[in-house]
Amino acid sequence: MTVALFVPCYIDQLYPDVAIATLELLERLGVDVAYPDGQTCCGQPMANTGCEADTAPVARRLVDLFADFEAVVCPSGSCVSMVRNHYGAYFDADDARFQHVTSKTYELCEYLHDVVAVTHLDVKFPHRVSLHQSCHGLRELRLGQSSESMTPRENKVRKLLNLVEGIEWVEPDRPDDCCGFGGTFAVNEADVSAEMGRARIADHCGKGSEVLASADMSCLMHLQGLIRREKNPIQVMHVAQILSGRPLGAT
Amino acid sequence: MLPIIQHPAAAKEFVNDPNRSRWHDQALWFVRSKRDKQAASLPEWEYLRETASGIKTHTIANLSHYLQEFERNATARGAIVHWARDAEHHNEIVLRILQDHKTHRIVKSKSMLTEECGLNHYLEDNGIDVVDTDLGERIVQLRGETPSHIVLPAIHIKKEEVGDTFHTHLGTDEGASDPKYLAEAARGHLRDKFLAGEIGITGVNFAIAETGGLVVCTNEGNADLGTSLPRVHIACMGIEKLLPRQRDLGVFTRLLARSATGQPITSYTSHFNGPRDENSELHIVLVDNGRSRLRESETFRAAMHCIRCGACMNTCPVYRRSGGHSYRATVPGPIGSVLSPTRDQNSYKSLPYACSLCGSCSDVCPVKIPLHHQLLAWRGELVGKKLLPVSKRLAMRFASYLFRFPALFRMVGKVGRFTLRVLPRWATHHRLNTWTIARELPEAPKETFRDWHRRHRDH
Ligand code: SF4
């Protein structure tokens, strides 16, 4: 039984180390991982813009590519939410291959927590870390409890990071305010997007965090862009990089 | 036809004034935090939301039945019920009542419906003196503005600015900004207005089919003051304000105040069951104004659940940064961005995009409207109607090809990354590249993950 690794377009092109760390981590935990060739994107940019006709063929390609695997694992919450919560519009409800892929696509932390049930990791990361909860991970995949909701939920990302030795947690004032990326929103509404991002950075930085960690690299891409422009004393890292034992500053 | 609103442009000034935008954000976050504490204090919070949503779904599904029941019972109590197709019709009905009573001065408690119908302007154009008695609403009225929030109409105005406004209009001391002093001055000013008001107009928070009664919730008691002196009370309500039974009310009053301002209950929850006495009149104007059309839409029908608590605005990170006026709509924020395009798709087409799809509004909404999913659904509708600019549609068409043909994707990626690495900074970071106005571009790696995988894993 083999799980397929889904590496979203922007991670493949811009943050290969996030994918490498994901692969190495899964392999180290004994998961048999394949990387099907020909994968590109989940179709989210088009879907979020409302261009459904342009999304459909991309969604169908992805399902074709992954349907023969036991499960699909992806280090990006928003891409997983796209497949799980928004692909329904592009398939017949009784399409077995679609049903298989949509129900067996996991966000990395979710897979490690729910399926592999990791209890031990032999890695250290002796730094002050704060967690940026991505909105799609939180409110669409329910990887943790959003601050608005009163339904208790475990924070899966945090539970995994707690297996790493030496992390000193830093708590921002607002645990889950949006960073302002939002896909094409970042370009469409550039001013509001940037202001939202600056506020997140100020919150984390102001509490003395050295590393802004997230399970969604897309949020981090936007935040990193702002951090570099404003020369803020904080770095971003994907959770997969920390869990796989990368040193500070791997992104 | 309305002018087309471009939210990014309308938001620019507000968001790029860091003092104002940050202070606005803090003020609303404070309200949301109060709401969180209140919600957390009720173990049954999520159950209440579920129940409220169920009641609303049922009511909207059987709306004509409950409206008729309401009309029967309200009439039996001596109220006079009017039906208004749209905003204009509503305004005419109100004016006619005022003219029948030869009234020239009215006091009005805050009502989003009359705001939606543009009643103030209409009445003023017809020679009627309109005084908004809600403090925030009075402030924006004196400034010649419109409310920027449905619960906190003057949230965008700083207390120093209120001081200036009151100095000009009410003769308070110049430079005074003490909220207590200003509120006292406003109270004195409004007291005179209350005494002079000949007819009181209020909105309605809930109407109950079973009893024919109305409920109005305020924190300043102005609805009561505005209706207890005048002999005539006109209550204006959207047809979606209905609840079937008296006992449903508790579910909603518990959710409303907590969601709106983080109070366990509004200071005044006033019940009106028919006219006060035989010398008084109670007119109830039931307004459709597009609601029946909204009800026909499967995708957006749940938006009729809205109880106008404003929680989605307080939590919305875009609203908090850009301010309510950037939506150029009576109801701003997430729910406004769902409702406005139902009025006029072309004019409000940028609003469904004024959202990062963070989903906070859907989780905060006390009646469980899936707001962010509706905003996404709106985008699909707008694209289907070709209301998205061609440049954006073409960009997405191009992206779609890119992602359908992996060889093309790899080639374009390679060129892109190469360009990013070799081009001087000025060629990639300029004002035409919207991303880079405030941010740096990512550093392009030499190798993609796929290339790495080929070298290390494919044998
Ligand atoms: S949509 Fe929900 S949260 Fe927003 S104002 Fe209406 S009831 Fe309140």
Automatic annotation (TrEMBL), chain A:
Record-given protein name: Lactate utilization protein A
InterPro entries per the UniProt record, alphabetical: Cys_rich_dom
GO molecular function, a single term: oxidoreductase activity
Residues annotated as signal peptide: none
Top-level taxon of the source organism: Bacteria
GO-annotated cellular components: cytosol
All copies of domain Cysteine-rich, residue ranges: 3-83, 129-224
Automatic annotation (TrEMBL), chain B:
PROSITE patterns given in the database record: 4FE4S_FER_1 (PS00198), 4FE4S_FER_2 (PS51379)
Gene Ontology terms, MF aspect: 4 iron, 4 sulfur cluster binding; metal ion binding
Record has Oxidoreductase as a keyword: no
Gene: lutB
Keyword match Ligase: no
Domain 4Fe-4S ferredoxin-type: 296-326, 346-375
A GO biological-process term: lactate metabolic process
Name this polypeptide is given: Lactate utilization protein B
This protein's UniProt keywords: 4Fe-4S, Electron transport, Iron, Iron-sulfur, Metal-binding, Repeat, Transport
